[in-house]
Amino acid sequence: MLTFTYTAGLGLQGQPPENNNWLRNAGGSPLHHRALRGSNEYIPITSSEASPGGLGACPQLVTLTAHAGSRSRPDIYSLHGTIFILIQQAEEVTGMKVVVEGCCHGQLNSIYDEISRRYGSVDLVLICGDFQAMRNEQDLNCMACPPKYRAMGDFRQYHTGERKAPYLTIVIGGNHESSCYMQELFYGGWLAPNIYYLGAAGVVQFRGLRVGGLSGIYNPHSFDKPHYERVPYDRNAERSVFHVRRTEVQRLALIRERMDVMMSHDWPAGIDQYGNLNWLLKAKPFFKADIEKGMLGSPPAMELLKTIKPAYWFSAHLHVRYPALYTHDAKAKINEDEIELDLDDGNPDEITLDENPDQIDLDLEAEVDETPPTPTGYPRTSFLALDKCLPRRKFLELINIDVDQPDQPLSYDPEWLAILRATHKTNTDLFNQIDIELKWINSNISDLKIPDNFKQLTKPLNELAEETNIPPSQLRTYQPQMQNNNQTDAFCNLIEIKTD
Ligand SMILES: [Zn+2]
Question: Which homologous superfamily is 95-327+376-413+448-495 in?
Fold first, then answer.
């Protein structure tokens, strides 16, 4: 794939910009380019689109459709109209085709078929929760949802080996899951061959791309509880099992190395303010009350977005496609010479959410002696929420991401392993402890490749019936047995921690 140096300009009525309408500082690095792309209706700039006259020899105009934004934040390239990109220079870089999917709801076959139809072969698929890894009918009894909506879906074909995921797929959990199975793989693991679950929280690497995720959804009543739930779940446990806990948020907040991609099922609270909010309120008017209270989404996820500063943040849950662009350095002065992108009619519905009264204090200070080192993040985070897999819904999006280790298999992330080890010990200075643990990881684990150690531990119901002499009609009313998963045992042995 090609990466570009460019300048961008604002064109009116579909015409290329006038001379004085070019944006200053709009072009530059591939990173900058990525951030801009993430904020827009995504139209990939391919070499064939851009090079009819030969790149470099003759600059080409390429258009991106911009999203509408607000008067108060012109720095996020938010405007009505068309941004024209003037390509100045292009170079070949190693790119990875990453497809993001919103909610899965058991529709794996349709999702993979649609990816193949639209994009051909891709390198990585990210699924943002409500995955529904139902191994057999018993798993349905662990999903918090009215019985009439409980459906097996496609996953069991992948679990038994009848089908194999055609692309490496990384998933997080949402609020409609085979929760018992996900608890078995608390630190992450293969749900089926080629389908990797990140765990309650987790970070992995693939081809040099760091991908992290937070499973579940936020609920203030469960945030400070331990993971007490065990099958058979009662009515309360069936729900609280997928609620995000402070422990996982704190672990993710300890990340200092640059993070490329983060995923959460529910949206980071307040991210709605950094996209086309008017459009969102029109499309989903019943969000209005929550948006006004700053309650749409997860406050701890927003804290993490601000702390980790990833290049991308992907979510699902609200069943609507919504791009936004969050700029981290709020103090960065807007260049006064910059052209006012004040073309919208103002945004009377805009709500300022900079100070969220419900902001979650991650309580890191209590455990850290010195000021924590500033994480090295990206200047902007491109947020994208996608819909669920239904006809005519926007549930898929392709993103090209430049990577620097094209041969790296799916691997454990050393910093994340060090964080897990450090947070399993009592220590007053966690950041110092993470440095110590990182040295331990580097000298004790030579191969970080995630092993292909998936085993089908749970049988289909008919086999279970033969084995137990209990009729399937009765068996299907039970919740599954909790079992030790070989992958969790191997992981805990590898980094020498006890299961949480
Ligand atoms: Zn959903």
Answer: Metallo-dependent phosphatases (3.60.21.10)
